[in-house]
Amino acid sequence: MLKREVCMTKWTTDWFSKSTQSLCGLLLAVTLSYSGVVSAALPSSVNGQPLPSLADMLERAMPAVVDISTEGRNSNTVDNNAYQRLFGRVAPKDSKGTGSGIIVDAKLGYIVTNAHVIQGAAKIKVTLNDGREFLAEVIGQDTEADVGVIQIQPERLIAMKLANSNTLRVGDFVVAIGNPFGLGQTATSGIISALGRSGLGIESYEDFIQTDAPINPGNSGGALVNLRGELVGINTAILGGRSGGSVGIGFAIPSNMVSNIKSQLIQSGEVVRGQLGVEIQNLSSDMIAKYKLKDTEGALISRVVIGSPADDAGLKSGDVIIQANGNRVKNSVNLKNIIGNLRIGTRASIEFVREGRALITVAEIEKVDSRSGFRP
């Protein structure tokens, strides 16, 4: 079962007591199991070279990651049914929650996090790595991609640089930094397991980085960084086990998507998405011969809206879009993400296949018309 990482847990004394007892029992069992084993100390170097360590990188990166606590969640602003579907429980009124965030502008005090961490909160408190606390103001939220921006007083802050997530490759090492289970700032490591995950039903716009770096409740809104300490993604969801903890499948919103959304939220407080004005669908294996394609990558146009950017650009039903604005199109959801993240008025190059011939046109992206229901 796919579910969003449960960051808004209302802790109880009874739960904590039982969990602590279980944890202590587990630690005791591990200790007893290995009490008779003599282990050799790790060498300080190999062939004269010091062992690799992430300590220096984390010393630079961790001060930019903050803990976020919320109070007084308004049930009128949270869709409880959706919340239960995604989180596995209903958000109680006046509940308290915890999550994480990343300082991205030290001069102005801007912090990015998940929209679901701050949504409906009456009070938001930010705790820095050095223990300082600030009340935060919500600048904007994009619930369709689950990105939010808050702002605190800019006093001696350290910001994190955003990496270009388009350069990521499967197998790259990454580190997740956040506040799991409210324990305090924690770093866990892993690799990028997959890129471009979509169609999971977590968000309206999905282009997730998948990682096996352990991500747990409280990591929502926290940083996924590369080995240079640069932000490559915002941790947002996990494929959870029965306990609700990590099973090695976590998802993060790519930094390039975060950067685009952040800029719009800071500038206008909202995100305006674009469209081509087409209905699209995925390609099946039996369509390869019919449409004279090499493989099933791309998005098949099943309908073009009259007078839309796609119509003006000469696109027709039966065309297969294989590239948009310089980005390879993997499927219909991928095309939706690419077009939806372009600014209104962008003249996007569209590469498509028509009757076996590869063609290129240019379409000027227009604002999504909520009445039409077309995206892209």
Summary of the model, kept short:
It is built from eight helices and 24 strands. By secondary structure, it is α+β, with helices and mostly antiparallel strands. It folds into three domains: 96 residues, Trypsin-like serine proteases (Thrombin, subunit H), CATH 2.40.10.10; 104 residues, Beta Barrel (Thrombin, subunit H), CATH 2.40.10; 94 residues, Pdz3 Domain.
How would you explain this protein's 3D organization?
It comes from Leucothrix arctica. InterPro entries: PDZ (IPR001478), PDZ_sf (IPR036034), Peptidase_S1_PA (IPR009003), Peptidase_S1C (IPR001940). With 376 residues, the protein is α+β, with helices and mostly antiparallel strands. It has three domains: 56-151, Trypsin-like serine proteases (Thrombin, subunit H, Beta Barrel); 165-268, Thrombin, subunit H; 274-367, PDZ domain (Pdz3 Domain). The protein has helices spanning 13-33, 55-61, 80-87, 115-118, 255-268, 287-290, 309-312, 332-340, and strands at 3-4, 45-46, 49-50, 65-71, 97-105, 110-113, 123-127, 133-135, 137-142, 147-151, 173-178, 186-197, 208-211, 223-225, 231-238, 250-254, 274-275, 278-281, 299-304, 320-324, 327-328, 347-354, 357-364, 366-367. The strands form five sheets. A seven-stranded antiparallel sheet has the order 8-7-4-5-6-10-9. The radius of gyration is 23 Å and the shape is globular. Residues 1-39 and 74-91 have low confidence and may be disordered.
